[in-house]
Design brief:
The protein is mainly α. It contains 6 helices and no strands.
Amino acid sequence: MKYPGIILLLFIVFMQGCYYDNKDILNPGTGCDTTIVTYSASVNPVLTAYCVGCHSGANAPLGVNLETYPNVKLQTGKLFGSVNHSPGFIPMPKNENKLSDCNIAKIRKWVAAGAPNN
């Protein structure tokens, strides 16, 4: 080889351009923030998107109406078990895939906090 030093130098320069020191770049987060979970900003949007389509009105299945906070509060004992597809609970959403881990984590944290109306 005529220019081994230049090739080595270019290799080193190139490799320096690929170096990352930031763990968030190398291992990006899930984008699931469960630091602050509230009914209005975290849980209600999930229920509206995945549950209220069926669980609303006077003819809601098994009388489970999830349109309003008071109705949801009455169901907190069953809510997490159902969306988590836990044994002994009817898996929800019915005939659908389980909710995302992030949405389940939000519901779990909210229920564990006493299901506050916040």
